[in-house]
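Teaching assistant's notes for section 4

Start the section by putting this record on the projector. Ask students to predict, before seeing the second block, whether ABC transporter ATP-binding protein will look compact or extended. Collect guesses on the board.
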Amino acid sequence: MSTTGREVLRRSITGQRRPVTLAALLTACHQGGEALVPVVIGVVIDRAVAGGSVSTLIFWLAVLGVLFAALSTSYRLGARFGERAAERAAHDLRLDIGRRVLHPGGGAETGNLAGELVSIGTSDAKRVGQVNGVLPFGVAGLAGLLVSAVVLLTMSVPLGLLVLLGTPPMLYLAHLIGKPLERRSEAEQERSAFASGVATDLVAGLRVLKGVGAERAAVDRYRRTSQDSLRATLRAARAQAWHNGALLALTGIFIAVVALVGGNLAAAGDISVGDLVAAVGLAQYLITPFSIFSWVNGELAQGRASAARIADVLNAPPAVDAGEATIPAPAAGHVRLSALGRGALRDVGFEARPGELLGVVATDPAAATDLLDCLGRAADPATGSVSVDAVDLSTVDPSRVREVVLVAAHDADLFAGTVAENFATGPLSEEAMSAAAVDEVAGALPDGVATEVTERGRSLSGGQRQRVALARALAVDAPVLVLHDPTTAVDTVTEARIAAGLAALRRGRTTILVTTSPALLAAADRVVLLDDGRIAGEGSHAELAGRADYRAAVLS
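Reveal the predicted structure now:
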């Protein structure tokens, strides 16, 4: 079922019902007490100052002191509960977004840069969570207005009715004034998230950009994106300023009317001097709840805009659907492609028998990418099928497919932490490290496998990163392992060692090597040649080396 921005907000609030309720009660007590302060001062004037009683004066001053102590306590506790609700709600939203992004069916990344998803999972989640922190203050503002109206009614019916009947139109006008802010806040967040996504991509590809001399083009691109974001931010800031100014003007007019009516009543003798002081004090106090309404309304407008962006991510359709079929356990690893068609692939059919080390040479990089997507069920074929142990993968849940078939992409990233911590599946496998020549990498590092690596492993060389990523894939010991060009950044001697180690370690397990490396292909039991997205040949590396198209792809 589709989730709307309104539903995201509702779930965020109901999920924190208890702390939000406690915060609302405590802050309502605080605002109600704030409204009583000018009333107590008016009582002091009428009963103590006017009567000249010192003992009465001391008593009411003590009452005032107790009131301020209660105000301080209720505000601190209410703010604490509200902040707790806001942070927990934002945390829950981050988890929801993370679960959607990491869902085996994929799809959340479609149309979104990585940085955009990060921005939605941080900035937008925080804005929606913050709604839980501001709603109690909105309730408190209403409580303050209600106490003020009741007190004014006891002093004078016209004053009380003025506040009671004037508040709803004020709140409705505040809602209308917040609409432009909501629209511009959504545009601001979209532009900001896109700029963050572009920056993330540029930083990730910094070495490549420097290598091809494209730094200026990259800077120009980010400058244009950043300027778009700046313009959207300025528009939102202008909307915020107009919103706050308009509400302040409305509030000032309303308070002036209350003070004018109270002054006329005092002049006519309908209320006492103390009541007049209390009425003027309450009129000044009314600035506080209306300022709260202005702040809450602005936060709600931004929260609604962010909730809509979160809903778009949560509603993103999966790239592949869930299935009910299952692959037998333990999996034998018999892979068969039948008349497979997707993207650059056209009527592709071959098989990898259980325990076979199969090489696949694709003359078109796009065909290799499409093949990897279909084998790992990152995407389903447009025509034909991919099966493992006679079970069509399009009928199997993606999470189960990934338990059986591990696709190690050419550009697999490492994570910040130690080399050892990048083996997230469990303890280090000495056999996997040896087969991928990671033991040589560890020997060259200052602290071996305990050496810290930076984000995406950028502190390592390209060849070192590839070997660690390969060892990580080998350590999983998946029934079917698909490797895409795992040795492009290593020297020929190391590549030959990896080829021999890979063949030995994966003996009895199905392995598909999508590569153009002669060393790896020579270690394969059989090689399939894909030319122009179609099967062009099949045989051993030595047999296919006699073909011009094969030599052009592998030996050139």
